[in-house]
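User: quick one, fold this
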Amino acid sequence: MQTPYYLLSEKALRDNLAVLRGVKERTGCKILLATKAFANYELFPIVAEYLDGVTSSSLHEARLGKEEMGKEVHIFSPAYIPADFPQIVECSDHIVFNSFAQYERFKPLLNGRSCGLRINPEYTEQDHAIYDPCGPGSRLGITLDQFTGSLEGIDGLHFHTLCEQNADALAHTLEVVKKKFGRYFSQIKWLNFGGGHHITRKDYDVELLIKCIKHIQDTYGLQVYLEPGEAVALNAGTLVASVLDFNQNGITNCILDTSAACHMPDVLEMPYRPRIVGAAEPNVKPYTYRFGGPTCLAGDIIGDYSFDQPLKIGDQVVFEDMAIYTMVKNNTFNGLNLPSIVLQRLDGSMQLLKQFGYEDFKRRL
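Assistant:
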């Protein structure tokens, strides 16, 4: 198969979903797929076997969830676009607002939908500023000093503070949320813990998560929602690329047919260094290369890696954990083609889900 392509694993996806279903079964909480991380709708029927629906950030995500999964659809936006809102109401079951003003503005159009407010507990334990919704000056969520409106018509509260974190960070956050906003819990029906829970990571403390969920449900009688994105498809896909050429300039640059800027944007945005099958840190193994993409962007650099054997033109390079925040973010900068999407079924067979070309590039311009 021509590279580059994303290779998704049905087995790995189902293994993750089984862990999440176990949390649901032991607690009675509801778990939603955050489509901002993983939106391969061809696999939504599989996700629907295990989870309760999707959570969305826009009309298009909400519509995709309604049409392709057909279960609960939740939505949050920092500010809703008025022209989109009637369709959002048609697609969504829960609508979460970022301010009292937004709720009041759209209240006449809600048609009985369950409504919530996003709160900002002003507490964080992460160090990725670009993904920190509770940092100073954040536009996301209502802080306690601004929490002055009536909760009439409001069914729930939503908070999101985590990013790739364990249950201890959630437990600490819950203490702050209870202290600041617990006085309102008697007026609502549900509490949404947001996303960022790395529940399917091997070292994740599932027992502590379950304890947190049960505490809120048993103490306050609230329905708890979780909306992980990464945990659903964590380590459930790779990106397969090929070596195109080499360039010597004080180091050995290895140019691939995939791009950080186009096909794995978080490498530059977060930033982070993706794992590669068979590779180590630079200079650990005999042959070290700096991987870069074929675009004209000087900073289209994936990272430095070392290998046991020298690479040659045509060799394949496999990037791990590429199901999440890749296909939902990729782009066609420089006219670079989008990678195909391939699914490995449980029986080992390969199914081509999507292939892209010139018309996909042209339609985006």
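User: anything notable?
Assistant: The domain at 237-322+330-363 is CATH 2.40.37.10 (Lyase, Ornithine Decarboxylase; Chain A, domain 1).
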